[in-house]
Amino acid sequence: MTLPPNVHDAEPIPAAARDAIDALMQSGDLFRYTAPQDAPVALLESEFAELLGTKYALAVSSCSAALFLSLKALDLPRDARVLIPGFTFAAVPSSVVHADCIPVLCEVGQNYRIDMDDFAAKLENVQAVIISHMRGHTSDMDAIMALCDARDIPVIEDAAHSLGTTWHGRNIGTIGKVGCFSFQSYKMINAGEGGILVTDDADLVARAVIMSGAYEHNWKKHKSPHGDNSPDLEQAFARWQNQLPLYNLRMSNLSAAVIRPQIPELARRVRDGLANHDYVADRLNTSPHIHVPAPLAPERRAPDSIQFNLVDLSDEDTLAFAAAAEARGVKVQVFGLSEDNARAFWNWQFLPEQIELPQTRAMLMKACDVRLPVRLTRKELDVIADILLASVGEVTAPAMAFGT
Ligand SMILES: *Cc1c(COP(=O)(O)O)cnc(C)c1O
């Protein structure tokens, strides 16, 4: 029998990164603003903007930093209310608190996407929204943009886990006013840590660049991907010179050197991740006790993990299922049942306002999460699917064990 695969190791970093890192080691040129031009971070920004088809990109220390800077760049007043989904990673409400704003939580459905009725109801009293495409599940961006545009409410996309996902063929992260991505190790491109924001808004990016730590005239080293800066951008930098605090959330050249050679790998990773996910989803959906929610019609996903809901299982059976899978070598996270889980909203006790979300809570008690790194083979995927199906079989039909 094939052993359960290691799902924690990432793919090796492409060899080209070593040459770039060696060169940096030799020169000691690790700070993005030392070189007069073409520092690895600046090149990454051009390449990433080109990849996504946006005018501007700003590389920073994490996606959380990108979310924080996006909120600051929107110039929201202190205590502005920011609508976020009730199912996301704790870093998202944290970035809102960090920006001196108040997170307002919105219900999420059984398919992990924003509940549009609750979203519409709560939109009246908010000044901005962050759409967190949690685990790469895209919420209904058509409905969200229609509602927000009608009220002139800016939309920040938390696309941390959505690099390579498209909506009507358009890149996720480019639909709202600003999109934020992560290069933390569990995301599609791995630099250990890192983040980037993309936008077409010159004023917003100028504010974010300065606040990220482009002190004095370092903003001159930020170019749009097509070379010379537009007058819009130059004017925006001039407007904000010396007007904004510097939070120093810059990316190091070392991180950029690790990220850049992974960009050409992205298309393959997305293709393999989706094929792997859909293969396991089809197998899991053969069980009446497992439901893998379908994507929305305009969405083409880029998954590196799978989420599914257990059907007609008590909390006790759900825990027994997770234990049975773990005993066989597959780790299942049940978002709402593991202690102190950072994706369960009731553990965000640092929020200035607590709120109960019954629908999201019910989903979190049934929703399971299993890592499926894109490098897994069909055989390894079968081992994982076999184990999950056997484990659910064990807890739902215990009588069978004593058989006739
Ligand atoms: C990983 C993740 C974040 C945080 O990204 P960092 O780069 O670690 O700050 C935020 N939101 C979502 C949905 C994520 O998956």
From TrEMBL:
The active site is at residue 187. GO terms for molecular function: pyridoxal phosphate binding; transaminase activity. The keyword Disulfide bond does not apply. The modification N6-(pyridoxal phosphate)lysine is found at residue 187. GO terms for biological process: polysaccharide biosynthetic process. Gene3D superfamilies: Type I PLP-dependent aspartate aminotransferase-like (Major domain). Its EC number is 2.6.1.-. It is an enzyme of class 2 (transferase). The keyword Transferase applies. Belongs to the DegT/DnrJ/EryC1 family. This is Putative pyridoxal phosphate-dependent aminotransferase EpsN. It comes from Ruegeria meonggei. The lineage of its organism: Bacteria, Pseudomonadati, Pseudomonadota, Alphaproteobacteria, Rhodobacterales.
